[in-house]
Amino acid sequence: MEALAKKLKIKNYGKMTKSQLQKAVRRAECKAQGLVYDAKTGKCRKSVAQKRAECKAQGLVYDAKTKKCRKSKNKKSKKKKYQPAKKGQMFDGDVNISRDCKISNDFELDPLTTHSNIKKKIYKNWNGTCFDIDDLAGYLIANNGKNADPMRIYDGVNEPLWRDKDELKSLLKFSKNAITNKERKNKLVSILNTIYMDLVTPPYIAAIEKNISVFNQIFLTGCTAIADNPSSYKIGIFSEAVESIGILAAKIDELPLKVSKLFLNLKINTGKTLQDILSTSNITCIHGIGIQICSIYFQNFVNIKNFWLENKIHKTIDLYPNIIPIEDSVFLWAVRADHHKKHNSKQIFIWNPRQYTHNGGTHRLGNYNSKSGWDDRYYSAYSKRVINSIPSILLDNLEAYPKIKKRGRVKKKKSKKSIAQKRAECKARGLVYDTKTKKCRKSKKKSRVRK
User: Fold this and answer.
1) Packing angle between helix 286-310 and helix 239-254, nearest 10 degrees?
2) 77 compared with 286, residue with greater pLDDT
């Protein structure tokens, strides 16, 4: 720790207590990254000035309460000028009811022309049905966004209100502009936004969200395959890795067919799928298989996170415990080392596809021991730089996967007594052995009395 403090040019580090030194080191590391140290969370974060500058670049202002960017309340939003609609097209403007609408009645079959301020509230659907947007909003809210046109029913089946994401986006856009009641607008926009995101979200993201335990099993299986290191290399000796791969395959098989295919088609940056990797597990190096399986986990975790950020979706997905993010989309974790020996060594791995293109971005930094520290084998200049930047206290407390299974005491089975032994025991007590109840009892025969 003192060597790291000296390297980071921390003044008076010799006079500091251990906890003060750790905070000073962390503060210096944050500063080197252009960030500030947060004493409450113990993590690096952007300063308020940096956040304000980012918001300003987006044409927004920084809100100190929510700690997010928002629109300025001082600027008045410009009202959109509605343009006349073109005949037979999707649009979000003024409507000539007699010219543009095939159906121009409301839900109670009254003409839409009787509605107040109808020119700015009329929404024409793809099939020519026109709605008062307030009426349509009430219908969709009551039916939780059901995609069914209440005015167009053929053979008992409703036509859809929208046929694809573009038509839904058109309705969503019109609703935001035309509905004046804020409560009704917010409810409808929330419902339609959820439906829209389901249409544009890649299906594998929903599959992972609903089956997070299967996704976590991918990481655990990768770690188990890396850690399985028996003393003799014989065919079929990697029983722990084979068992873990079997558990993962069984969990995927239990899923519905469409969902299981989505999991098997998860990819790393080399284009390999999970199915490709698992199918070669019996013919290639098991440790290389484990490394690629771990890359599947981290690559898709980052893909999901980036998709949500780009689309401003306020969702989070949690990393498996004891995985440490050390940079943006760079992760550190520990794998058990030489489980057949009793010592405190662990293998430290990093996932950084920008630095390591082989095996999908997963790379072994080296072995770490809480007593002796790192081994002397460095595989690249970047690895050495990362190793020197990680505080030893963090590595000491880092739990390695997979955990060693605790074996309970094996109880010795009592040897069963033979029938001859049981009869002898009963006879010694003046009884007889009953083969039906398997217990001793009194004899049913009465002793003969001499006349």
Assistant:
1) 40
2) 286
pLDDT per residue as tens digits for the range 378-390? 567 788 888 888 8
Q: Give the Cα separation of 359 and 305 in Å (integer).
A: 21
Q: Which two tokens stand for residue 427?
A: 């006879």
Residues listed for the chain: 451
Model pTM score: 0.57
Residue with tokens 């940096």: 50
Tell me which H or E stretch contains 441.
strand 439-441
Q: For 229, which DSSP code?
A: -
Q: How far apart are CA 435 and CA 449, in angstroms?
A: 28
Return d(Cα 186, Cα 176) in angstroms, integer.
8
Residue 407 is encoded by which pair of tokens? 């074996």
Please state, in angstroms and as integers, the Cα–Cα distance from residue 10 to each residue in 32, 260, 387, 389, following that order: 12, 53, 19, 14
In DSSP terms, 364 is beta-bridged to 349
Distance CA(311)–CA(196), nearest Å, equals 11
- Strands of 249-344, DSSP E: 324-327, 330-336
Q: Which of 211, 225, 284 is nearest to 254 (CA)?
A: 211
**Dihedrals φ, ψ of 314, to 5°?**
-85, 75
CB burial string 137-164: b at 16+ within 10 A, e below: bbbbeeeebeeebbbbeeeeeebbbbee
Q: What residue segments make up the domains of the chain, in order of their start?
A: 2-70, 97-200, 204-401
Tell me the DSSP string of 56-69.
HHTT-EEETTTTEE
Q: Cβ contacts of residue 301 below 8 Å, gap of 6+?
A: 317, 319
Alpha carbon distance 442, 188 (integer Å): 85
State phi, psi for 38 to the nearest 5 degrees: -95, 110
Q: What is the pLDDT of residue 104?
A: 80
Residue with the two structure tokens 């409450």: 40
Beta pairing class for 61-63 and 68-70: antiparallel
Q: Name the amino acid, one letter, at 330.
A: V
* Alpha carbons 59 and 72: distance in angstroms, whole number: 9
CA angle 89, 90, 92 (to 5 degrees): 125
Q: Count CB atoms within 10 A of the CB of residue 313.
A: 14
Cα–Cα distance for residue pair 126/128, rounded to 1 Å:
6
Summarised one tens digit per residue, pLDDT across range 389-447 is 888 888 888 888 887 665 555 455 556 778 888 888 888 888 888 888 888 888 877 55
**Which amino acid appears at position 434 of this protein?**
D
Average pLDDT value for residue range 249-264: 94
